[in-house]
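Cross-posted from the bioinformatics board.
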Amino acid sequence: MNEQTHMLDIDNLHAKVEDKDILKGLSLSLRPGEVHAIMGPNGSGKSTLAHVLAGREGYTVTQGGVKFRGQDLLAMEPEERAAAGVFLGFQYPVEIPGVTNLYFLKAALNAQRKSRGEKELDAADFLAYVKQRVKQMQMDPKMLHRGVNEGFSGGEKKRNEILQMLVLQPSMMILDETDSGLDIDALKVVADGINAMRGPTTATLLVTHYQRLLDHVQPDRVHVLADGRIVKSGGPELARELEEKGYAWLQPQKAA
Amino acid sequence: MSSLEHYARAFERLPASARTDARRGALSRLLELGLPTTAHEDWKYTDLSSVHELAPDGGDIDGEAPARLDADADGVDALNAAFAGGGLQLDVPAGSHRAEIIVAGGNGHRRHHVRLGRGAQARLRLDVQPHAAFQTVVLDIELDAGAQLTMLRLQDAGADARHLTRVRARLGRDTTLDLSTVDLGGRLSRHDLVVDLAEPGAQVHLRGLFVASGDGHIDNHTRFDHRAPHGTSRETVRGLARDAARGVFNGKIVVHPGAQKTDSEQRVANLILSPKAEINAKPELEIYADDVKCAHGATFGQLDLTALFYLRSRGLPEADARALLTLAFAMEPLRAIPDADFRREAIGRVSAHLGASIEEMS
């Protein structure tokens, strides 16, 4: 594969948190139009990967690198990654009382547009734009005037992540366990939101523990992460295999 | 105390009509007591020695001012009683509802008195003179049964201003005192709030915010005395200190014997935005009744790094994200101000002070 055709290129990535090695040589490439799923047991490094890609402090990359459309992703600030089109859907979205969702969404979108040299949206245009997406996520428009995730249920917070994604229109989406804590109706709404972003110019990395989201969002590739490395890759059928057999069969054989 | 001699001289310069016996008595008390020093527990962090050098600013003294001094008065009370000019003398008759905002303000040392008769309602704003070299303001409040007073004290003084304000309230049966306080400026700003929940069913609600900047010093001392059953007190205070500023908060709650079914809650949160800034905040609870509910908590911290990352991951530049989180932290108590006019005024002044445009935030 030619690197130029890749959207995201993770090459032999090693990362640690404090003094603990978490990622130990992870390599993965996504082309535009693709949806990949990363599955794996707890503690395998799934969330660390998501955070390293988004630029969270506290993670040290010790080896390897990540290119996003040929650019060195790890050299960019979190807000630069966002403006370049990278979006992280948080496993645990943060509550920010006192900042309304509406203000937050507008400030974020306009900051990104400004940094890309695009014209900022005015209040009226933005409101119409955002309301349409609130409807798409089957959320109450009143949520726009509430604090960011303030008092939201787990499911509402996840819907809100997808709403932010629809508003910001990123090209590279990394969704960290966006499916956990959702009932079946919310799962469908969230899956529809993810599918709405699928297209020839976008790519999605679904980090998940369970197979059920993949019933609604068909991945092109499934990777199994264990102990900081990808130990197996395959098509959608791999997810079903994991669901049936669990992860134990993938663990390296212990020496007798 | 020789450093107080200039007060005696300043007193002799007052118009003859103002040099009443009561005022002269107060002056003697001042000379005898002196102003509190940092050796005094309640003044541990607030040093009035710079004030000693300042001649009191007499303002327009008119001889009508009340100069009553209680037995437990300290030097600040005495100074105010000796030099205060006439302030607001408000007596709202029983059952009367005053719709307009009443202002207690004025230059120089001031002494105000507000009394609400049975079931009366009023809105009061307490102002200080924003550029006073030195001003003391004392406000006494009496609420008769069922009265409701809603109050805003907003201090947005200049960088060299020094203020000592003191609000004392006596709450009768089933009364409500709803007080919002905002301190934004000043070189030295000390505010004492003493609320006596003297009769059953009294309620006090306090929302406070201070933002200490530059090398300013903002000190709030509150004391709520629950002396009767079924009293309620709610206290939510947020403090911010940046640059080399210092904030002090001391919140004392005393539940006296017999004040059963007292329901009291105090929440204090502080944000320290610079390594040179400092906040000293202390809750003090004294409980002498056994059937009461008292909750309190105090936190100190920097901005929430997870929230900061969340905002940046959506594209907000770091400086904007920090400013937004700071503003949201400061606004928290203000958003809960029940009176719409006071809420608008407090939020507007604080957002202007923090250099933000937040018309869409709330």
